[in-house]
């Protein structure tokens, strides 16, 4: 007698090593709840449609109760959670009743159902965390509309900015992540249950009823599509990978800005890691791990797509390998959001270091060129003149606003541009003045920051 439920067609049991190889039981702990909920709804539907009697339905439902505590993998002889739950039900309710639970369904529609329910749940949970992080970012931004910092391109100082402007940039990206989670929800929230193995059933089941009982918006109607498509899984892995990539960019900034060279920010001790050997160390490991986990999330997306792309239509066991990738991506996204939120809530922003760094570059150079544009100089010529001005200031080791008049005259030689006007522009080429001059929508101007925080909140 086989120790697996359905080996009547096969004479011999699986070797232990083979069972270990084919079993997904170690990945199925995450869906045990959903497998039970699905079986409850299926049993109610079988009763309502007259496919099983009241006593049998009652016995199955009582047997299902409490099974979520059945820890898979304990005895190491089950192929997956579906088989484990069914054998437990048969054990408790007896074969005459329990043996009726799997009427009109297959493990193929069952596993697709469990995955969709798990992803639906995790999508909602991660959405909530993302929204929470955005709120914390807006809160942090609102305290730093006046915190001046350099903006970088190519990691070289580029223009004058504020820390609130920086924070709002990440809040914007995360708001889109939240949007992607929302958008994907109605696609995952469709029931595959009742599609059977691949071609439906001859029994008069009611797919709409189980879909409704389980809170689905509708059906994945086509039975082949319902059992063998995993684009919902790819979409979830993709949304998680994009989210992790966005968090990784924030993490990278926080790592760099925590260095003694930058000292723009400091994470609290409770979020920092020591070194086993260097007593002075306070490392931003949580942020490095977000970068590392983002790499894994990208790998998981690749794994899901690769497992799906060559599969002939109809369920193939390859699809089993997708499950741990999805659970992993969900866990990483949730963890990364939690630590990002802690970091954003507790980070110390070193305003003085930011201000000092901003005063050392030539962040207002573009303003001088744009001032010349207002004077009627073509932008390309204004760019060239300002480049010369910066060159002389750099050679003299002076900020642009301290450039001596003689140097200005030299830079203007042969240009026909009025030296007095340029001198005025150069005098006001400071970070403070530059920020005051920002007028374009979405720029770091104080008024823009307040408006954007208000509108986002
Ligand atoms: N353990 C399987 C999985 O996770 C369940 C479906 C098995 N179906 C089958 N026909 N072998 O994908």
TrEMBL record:
Keywords: Amino-acid biosynthesis, Arginine biosynthesis, Cytoplasm, Lyase
SUPFAM superfamilies referenced in this protein's UniProt entry, alphabetically: L-aspartase-like
Reaction catalysis annotation: 2-(N(omega)-L-arginino)succinate = fumarate + L-arginine
EC number(s) per entry: 4.3.2.1
Domain of life: Archaea
InterPro entries: Arg_succ_lyase_C, Argininosuccinate_lyase, Fumarase/histidase_N, Fumarate_lyase_fam, Fumarate_lyase_N, L-Aspartase-like
Pathway named in the protein's UniProt entry: Amino-acid biosynthesis; L-arginine biosynthesis; L-arginine from L-ornithine and carbamoyl phosphate: step 3/3
An MF annotation (GO) of this entry: argininosuccinate lyase activity
Chain ranges of the Fumarate lyase N-terminal domain: 90-299
Domain Argininosuccinate lyase C-terminal residue range list: 362-411
GO biological process: L-arginine biosynthetic process via ornithine
One GO term describing the cellular component: cytosol
Protein's cellular compartments: Cytoplasm
Top-level EC class as recorded in UniProt: lyase
Family the UniProt entry places it in: Belongs to the lyase 1 family. Argininosuccinate lyase subfamily.
Cross-referenced NCBIfam families: argH
Annotated protein name in UniProt: Argininosuccinate lyase
